[in-house]
Structure formats: structure tokens, C-alpha cells
Design goal:
alpha/beta, eight-stranded mixed beta sheet, seven-stranded parallel beta sheet
Length: 430
Amino acid sequence: MNFNGYDLKEEIVLALKDLKFEKFTDIQNEVLPLAFNGKSFIGQSKTGSGKTHAFLIPIFNSLDLEDKTVQVIIASPTRELAGQIYKVAKHLASFFNEEIDIRLYTGGTDRLREIEKLNNSQPQIVIGTPGKISDLMIKANALRGYTAKRMVVDEADMAFEIGFMDDLDLIAGRLTDPQIMVFSATVREEIRIFISKYISSKEHIKIEDTKLNVRHILIPIKSRDKYSVLDGLIKNLNPYLAIIFANTKDEAMLIRAHLLKSNIKAALVHGGLTPRERKRVMNEINDLKYQYIIASDIAARGIDITGVSHVINFSLPTNYEFYIHRSGRTGRANMDGICYSLCEFNDEQYLRMLEDRGITFEYLDILDGNFVNYNPNRRSNRVKPLTIGEKKAIKMVKKPKKVTPGYKKKQQAKIKEIAKKINKKEGRKK
């Protein structure tokens, strides 16, 4: 059946119409011809661009329903992402009259029961985390994945960050001349090595112009306490769902503790959560029990949260690519989104790099509890140079090993006190 110029099985067309699909996205239009022709490739595009259907549609279109061996292996770096792919795959499979055996393999499940079931029958489509698939396929020798003719590596850059590249290498090495589809938001050198080993054609699809309806707004911290700026921002917002990004787990925990003082309940998502805690938090988020989510980068990239109306960068990420991932959490599915970033003046070079990537920033400040326009080029807005006393005091006052809520305010007060004494001694006034 023809759908947007592609000859698809009737069941797939019905599934797409059920999802109100009208046309394919940029990445889908680029990927589908290669995937249908059995070519290996790497697809690079921003988050929310429709990558999951880009590989599931050709997989289901070419699936041999009579073949009860493993035909496809789909590896995703986190159980949440694997679970979301599984959900989409099950939706597509539900439109077929014949049952399609799709199995999800992630950590925290009953390994012995999975092995027992595999000894009785093999899935046609395997979806899971690289570590779990490698365990069942190579260590346990229960999953006979070597029959697979196709392999998908989802979020390859994240798989590298977590440390799954060796597992992916082991899995791919057991396959015989497979079609390998790699999807990644960025392409590091380590990923290129993996690609060059298994993808001889070196087809590289890069989508730069995926449109996200996101406003990027910078809010200066200046000499204020960062948490007070966050308070002022939150008082001006009424988000459907907002993600507050922190650079570390400790910072995320401090933000949550601060918000609780204002009776704002926020979900906390970071790499230190146990699988059970993570599952509970995600269920609560999906049940819309929270208006705010506080997350670290790795944890947030491992989950797909729908309905995010606002993103707040409490701290700008050290890697500007992470800014792209963060802001891409909102403005999806033709909805508008806003990304607020609390910034320092020494972030200027970093911000210029983002502007070179096509991001246009707006400037706002919060005065007397309200938003006001802010001109970063005005002389009165510029930070005054540090005095001799301030420079020495900053070096003298170290960050405590164990931080508590409000430590930055106390730290700044101590710096101010020491600087005043040094300036007086040096014969200078602050």
C-alpha cells in the first residue's frame, strides 16, 4: 500500500494512520530509502526527530512472519529508552493478524526465567540494553541472536558515555554480514571507529535543520544568589511540565531540597537512583504528579518525557552539545517550548558557540518579582572587575567537602567579609 511514496504493508499504514501520521519527518525521509534497500548507515539528528519509526517501519515492512528465529536486534542504552521502543514496536505489531514475538531485555528482570523461555523459543525482534543482550546472547548462550539480519544501535553517543561500546562490539561481531543502523545525536571518534568496523558503505545522514519551536532565554545571575534567581523565575511560570537541569547529582539534590522549602514538590532523576526508584519516579511523572522534574544530563537523556513545556538550565552544561539535547526536550510535536538558562558573564564565549549553531537568544531579567527586558551590552549591566581583596578571598574560601542548601550564600558572605579586610589592608575600598 502506498503511503507518502513508499510501498508499505497495509498493517503498517493502518498503524501510522492510528497515530495521525500525515507525512514523514526529515530524518525518516532520509533513512527509509537506505533502510528499505538493506544498506547500513548512521543517522544523526536532534532528539525528537522521529528516529524510532525511522528504523521500525522498514523492520516491520521486511519482517518474515513465518521465520521464528531472531531477525532483528535493537540495542538502546537505558531500560527506559528500550521500553519506549518496545512500546512503539508493540503498537505496530498490534495491527498484524499474526502474532509477532517481540521481547524486551533490560536489567532488573528474572534472568533464569528469561533463559528458560529462550530455551523453548526465540523472539523475532529483540529489544534491550546492550549489557543485557550481550549477557543472554554470549554469556548465557541462550539468545541465538547470530541469526539476526538487522541490528539497530539507538543513541550510540549515550551508549559510549555509559560504557556499552564493548557489549555492542561483541553483539555485532556475532552477526553475519548484517544491516546495521546506527542512530546518534552526535558522532564521536569512538563511534566512528565502531562504524568503520561494521559499516563499509559509510553512509552518514546528518539532519541539521530539524525545527523545534523553542525560545531560548538567558537570565543573568549577576551578584545575586542563584537560588533566589531560580525562585523568581519559577514564580513567573506555570508550566505544564518543566525540567530543571543540573550538572551533577549533588546539584540536583540541592535544587530539590531548596524547592521543598517553598513547598514545591519535584521529581528527582539522576544516575544514582536504583532501578526500582527510577521506575517509581517515572510512573509518577507519567501520571502527572509533578510540575517540575530535576534531572542530570545522563539520566534525562535516558528517558523520553512527553509534554515538556519548559526547560530550565540551573547551570549551563559544560558540553554545548548537551545544551542542544536539553533544549530539545521541549518544543516537540509541533508544540511551543521555552528554554531558560541562568548564566554568568563568563559564559559569553560558550554562548557565542551556541549562536554559531543557529540558536538565537533573548535576554530577560527578574526585578521586583517580574520579568523585564535586559540589555547585556549596557555598561551598567556589566560585572565590575574584581578587587585585589576579592581575588585573594575567592582563593582562600574553598568549597566545603559536604555541601548543604544555602552553602553558596554563606560562601559569598565569607568571601565578602575577607575581601573587605584585605582591601582595607591594601588601602583600597571595595
